Amino acid sequence: MNNSKQVEISWPSLGITVAAELDQRNPALAQCLWDALPYRSLQGHALVAGYHLYHLAPVHSLLHTDAEYRVDRRTVPDGTLFCSRLQHLGIKYGELTEPMNATPVGLVAEDDLDALAEAGREVWRSVYTTKEPVIAEVRRAGQSGGHELPRLPIGDPELNRLVTEVHAETQRIWLEPPQELLDLHEGRIPSGAGSYETVLTTLLFVNGETRPLGYSCYGGLVRAALDGMPMPWLRQMTRQLAHTPAEFLGYCGLDRLWDFTQRLLAGLERLDSHEDFVAVMAHMALYCNCLGGWNLHLFPWQAGENLRRLQAPA
């Protein structure tokens, strides 16, 4: 039986494509990614950990699929591909400093490592300086590209309407920045958020609330439901975890997120099955993670150009 899964990762605006093979270190995660191909996504770059690319993969199952094999990602070869419960496809292309256990799923071809490093440098320039989005395309080798976000069914009609809207909004902003974030980053903040008319402070807090809302709140609720947490506890945890950050983000300008959250919280009592609960929370996770990706791209990281890490004396 041939288990080879050959893929291509392309950044069309950079004119760069690399070949990679998904391997058997974490076969369930590799299969999740393989089944979702092809897709396109905004390409991001690590801002703390080092020479590492990552983007949001439209794969709900990455939120909860178990990994069999973990490594300290600092120790593996350049070109290693990772899938994570943050719904990321990551690619190491140089030195990493963060001691994080990660779940490898494949490796970029050795002949393409120079091209991968070039892509990494260009994406860093995009994220840190130019703000011109770079879109990644991941596809099965030799096959055409494409893009479609998955849609999970919901039994309750009213919550199904909510998820339909969340799915449509996620699709709308997947490859184009949401106007709410563009307005915020350009200083158009109707609520007046930002003491003494500052904008950078508000952007910082928006970034700090959006990422854990997707990664920890909604992603964590999916995992808790699949671990068998009783529905009354899941409803209570949703109320405790989601309301305050979403309300704050609405005040800062993310009105759509706050509207979705209020409707979700109002309909929690109609969620009477773990299957429906997982589907609703998975869609909220993907939407919040998409907002988080755009916020990281748009954030004016170059404002800290004069702040550089001190090198230890030799």
UniProtKB/TrEMBL annotation:
It holds the Pfam family Cucumopine_C. Residues 160-298 form the Cucumopine synthase C-terminal helical bundle domain. This is Cucumopine synthase C-terminal helical bundle domain-containing protein. It comes from Nonomuraea fuscirosea. The lineage of its organism: Bacteria, Bacillati, Actinomycetota, Actinomycetes, Streptosporangiales.
